[in-house]
């Protein structure tokens, strides 16, 4: 990309386009800390580099799935810190899960930017609340209620309302939604009616339970996680001195997964910021899948309205998935409707081609589970690690039949959503044993015959249940072995990255990883719901149970709810790097009536089906800078090569509407006449030649040979201003005139 006319050229990028880029989502476990601030930028693609260097003013990063958004924002923070522009303690990066916050801290540490606060919204707010409560309110902070279900059950009983287990869970979720949308108990029925929310019970009953739940908390001096946000907001609103204190502490803010921000979280963010605009947000409206919790993409979609001078960077280069997977993902959203769909990003795979997605129809659910288990066993036999395979489903109740099928096939698995790795009993015990062996050093007889760090770790963990061969079957014994095996593999990787590392070095690494919740990989097929798979990725993904009534789920009634279900399937598709399988069954149980239909979302995508209509995307990758927003244009589909049909993202190729290496039908003589005319014209007006027309624009003109002003205006790079200024001359040359005749026409225009 050339700089605007009159501005000096920017320094050349590193050799990204020649293979120097490093993977966006699949990096080394123990990378070397970059030697300098500039080294932090090495290996970033042009758009990621723009994010990293955009350290001032509001910045909005629209990042498609697999495009390296976490990489971009952690390198942005690290570059600012290493360049001395940002002080580590003045940066607050917030996201939505402890796992994501831990990953961010781990990456920042690897980039030499330790000391930056990377937390969830709740964690950051709780820290501030604990610190300021004695000053703002006095006394001790009320005790935090870890699980609210039991108290909701008691509140319902006091209201003489019976709730079964599922209703109890749903009512608890409704209370959480009410609090993050700042809806008080008395207003709940009216808000449900206004928003057409599908309440799990009579809204008046939920309002009653909600009010009693709040009363019980007050009586017992308890607060829940939503109260943490509400109380922090209240203190910052009421106590300007405390708000000023927080704003002096934190000067720069980064918000990941911004499409999932709730109104309450946005209010807290606004109070943290005050009147400043030192904010960088990252998100993708097409991955909004938590609206039932109060999340809304409106804050992301309205960012340019609130911050007209914001820098907007679009990341569309997908480093995770093959072109086949990306094509399916783009096609899935191509049929979407609604505001989020209007802003969707057309992903462009950066990987080598892989296998086509596999669509499979089964007679019943057990047959689907057994068929999936067989295919997984075949993949493992072909060399795909079990830990790089996932089975994803819509609801957790679908997992049981797959657990049984995998166990019968002798395939290890793990359920997503179990306790954190470093909180597992066997991991804590292993840590104690390794720490003791490190302190004992050469005095520990266990280590007498062990040579090298991995051998020492294997010797120590053999006393805790690790063996060279895994136990048969599944269950608690296999889970324990997998945890210990993950520590053994971590030791092997650690020694390879740091030759000569000692057991004490490994223990220190484990301590840092535990603090950051940066867990090693456990080998076993992952079983997870689509919601819990957000932010994860695997080599092979099996999307199962894709029936009408399950995808979309039967209680998704409104257009908005249906579109969220489509986005949920999109999230599932984009978890796959290489292998992708989509399946459904015709009946629930063997011998049942085969009346089920595959998900409507697969229409036009699976073989033999018909599409219901496709829409264009919001454009390719790139950078936009204020002012904004601009006047709306009609939606355009993705630019495709007119020769081979490939999606185009390079600006020069988009001008030509073909790939650079596809055959050209350009009129060479016309191109040379246009170049001669441009050289003289540029000299006359005192500007560089490319400010008249770029080479690619001249090539596009020479290929199209326009015969009218309308045809010339339709060529990318011409535009209304250049059409008025140069149009007559260019058309004269296209009609067979010489460069000199074109210059005579230019004189007439002046």
What does this structure look like?
With 750 residues, this protein is of the alpha/beta class. It contains 29 helices and 17 strands. It has a seven-stranded mixed beta sheet, with helices on both faces. Strands 11-16-15-12-14-13 form a six-stranded parallel beta sheet, sandwiched between helices. The protein has a two-stranded parallel ribbon with strand order 4-5. α4 (98-110) links the parallel β2 and β3 (117-120). α5 (121-136) packs across α10. The chain is globular, with a radius of gyration of 29 Å. Mean pLDDT is 82; it is low at 1-27, 624-637 and 746-750.
The profile of the biggest β sheet is: 7 strands, mixed
Structural class: alpha/beta
Distance between the termini: 30 Å
Proportion in β-strands: 5-15%
- What is the count of helical runs? 29
Shape: globular
Q: Round the mean pLDDT to the nearest integer and report it.
A: 82
Which regions contain 5 or more consecutive residues with pLDDT less than 50? Answer: 1-27, 624-637, 746-750
How much helix is in the residues? 40-55%
Number of strands: 17
The side-by-side strand order for the widest beta sheet comes to 3-2-6-7-1-8-17
Radius of gyration, taken over Cα atoms and rounded to an integer in Å = 29 Å
């Amino acid at each position: 990309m050339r700089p605007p006319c009159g501005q000096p050229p920017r320094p050349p990028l590193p050799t990204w386009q020649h293979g120097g880029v490093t993977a966006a989502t699949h990096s080394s476990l123990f990378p070397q800390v970059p030697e300098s601030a500039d080294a932090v930028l090495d290996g970033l693609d042009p758009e990621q580099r723009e994010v990293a260097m955009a350290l001032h003013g509001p910045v909005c990063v629209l990042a498609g799935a697999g495009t390296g958004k976490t990489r971009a924002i952690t390198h942005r923070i690290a570059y600012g810190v290493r360049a001395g522009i940002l002080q580590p303690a003045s940066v607050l990066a917030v996201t939505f899960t402890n796992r994501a916050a831990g990953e961010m801290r781990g990456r920042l540490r690897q980039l030499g930017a330790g000391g930056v606060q990377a937390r969830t919204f709740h964690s950051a707010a709780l820290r501030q609340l604990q610190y300021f409560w004695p000053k703002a309110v006095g006394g001790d902070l009320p005790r935090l209620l870890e699980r609210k279900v039991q108290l909701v059950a008691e509140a319902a009983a006091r209201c003489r309302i019976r709730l079964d287990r599922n209703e109890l869970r749903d009512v608890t979720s409704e209370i959480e939604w009410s609090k993050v949308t700042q809806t008080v108990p008395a207003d709940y029925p009216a808000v449900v009616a206004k928003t057409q929310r599908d309440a799990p019970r009579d809204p008046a009953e939920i309002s009653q339970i909600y009010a009693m739940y709040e009363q019980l908390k007050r009586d017992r001096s308890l607060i829940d996680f939503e109260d943490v946000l509400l109380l922090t907001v209240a203190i910052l609103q009421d106590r300007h001195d405390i708000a000023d204190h927080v704003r002096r502490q934190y000067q720069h803010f980064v918000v990941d997964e911004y499409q999932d921000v709730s109104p309450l979280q946005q209010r807290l963010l606004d109070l943290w910021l005050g009147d400043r605009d030192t904010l960088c947000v990252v998100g993708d409206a097409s991955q909004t899948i938590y609206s039932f919790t109060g999340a809304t993409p409106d804050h992301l979609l309205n960012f340019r309205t609130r911050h007209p001078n914001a820098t907007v960077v679009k990341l569309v280069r997908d480093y995770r998935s093959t072109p086949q997977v990306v094509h399916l993902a783009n096609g899935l959203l191509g049929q979407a409707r609604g505001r989020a769909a209007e802003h969707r990003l057309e992903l462009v795979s950066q990987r080598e081609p892989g296998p086509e997605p596999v669509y499979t129809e089964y007679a019943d659910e057990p047959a689907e589970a057994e068929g999936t288990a067989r295919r997984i066993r075949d993949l493992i036999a072909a060399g795909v690690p079990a830990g790089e395979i996932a089975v994803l489903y819509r609801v957790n109740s679908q997992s049981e039949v797959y657990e049984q099928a995998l166990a019968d096939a002798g395939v290890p698995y793990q359920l997503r959503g179990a306790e954190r790795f470093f909180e597992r009993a066997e991991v804590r015990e292993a840590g104690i044993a390794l720490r003791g062996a490190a302190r004992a050093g050469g005095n520990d007889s266990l280590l007498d015959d062990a040579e090298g760090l991995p051998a020492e770790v294997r010797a120590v963990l053999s006393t805790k249940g690790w063996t060279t061969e895994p136990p048969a079957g599944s269950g608690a014994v296999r889970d324990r072995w997998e945890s210990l095996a993950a520590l053994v593999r971590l030791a092997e990787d650690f020694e390879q990255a740091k030759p000569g590392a000692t057991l004490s070095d490994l223990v220190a690494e484990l301590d840092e990883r535990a603090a950051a919740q940066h867990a090693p990989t456990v080998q076993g097929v992952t079983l997870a719901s689509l919601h819990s798979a957000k932010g994860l990725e695997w080599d092979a993904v099996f999307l199962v149970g894709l029936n009408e009534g399950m995808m979309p789920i039967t209680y998704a009634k409104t257009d908005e709810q249906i579109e969220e279900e489509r986005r949920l399937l999109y999230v599932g598709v984009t978890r796959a790097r290489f292998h992708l399988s989509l399946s459904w069954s015709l009946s629930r149980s063997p011998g049942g009536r085969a009346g089920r239909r595959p998900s409507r979302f697969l229409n036009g995508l699976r073989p033999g089906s018909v599409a219901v209509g496709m829409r264009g995307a919001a454009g390719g990758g790139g950078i936009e800078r204020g002012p904004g927003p601009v006047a709306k244009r009609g939606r355009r589909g993705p630019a495709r090569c007119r020769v081979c049909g490939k999606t185009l993202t390079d600006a020069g190729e988009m001008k030509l509407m073909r790939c650079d290496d596809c055959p050209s039908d350009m009129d060479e003589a016309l191109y040379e006449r246009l170049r001669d005319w441009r050289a003289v014209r540029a000299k006359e007006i005192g500007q560089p030649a490319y400010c008249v027309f770029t080479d690619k624009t001249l090539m596009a003109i020479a290929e199209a040979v326009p015969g009218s002003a309308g045809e010339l205006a339709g060529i990318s790079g011409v535009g209304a201003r250049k059409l008025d200024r140069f149009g007559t001359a260019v058309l004269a040359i296209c009609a067979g005139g010489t460069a000199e005749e074109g210059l005579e026409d230019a004189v007439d225009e002046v």
